[in-house]
Amino acid sequence: MAEAGLFIGWGEPVTGREAKGLQVFAEALAYYGKAEQEGRIESHETAFLGPHGGDLAGFTLVRGSEAQMAALRVEDEFERVIARAGLVVQNLGVIDASIGDGVQDAVAVYQAAVNDLA
Known about the structure:
Blueprint: E1 4-10, H1 18-37, E2 43-48, E3 58-64, H2 66-73, H3 76-86, E4 93-98, H4 101-117
């Protein structure tokens, strides 16, 4: 089971770049699909969000081990996909995530910090 992830979130498309945005989105999905097939990540899932008054329009959650996420972040192709995405959507972010068994580890770190400051 995956313990780590990358949350890749984005906002609205840049005005006038919508068609290029679809192209980059397809490239990103193909990249994550290939990474999954090759075992470089465990899985990935993409969501488009309905209107909610915020600046997050959608996200992809990539799942795997901490080592897989660290390796993915420094792949040239990942950096290329993220750079291209930043040119066609607003508010792009790539955030480390604790998931699955990693949540327990994150809570333990937080609990230790709370205890240290009590």
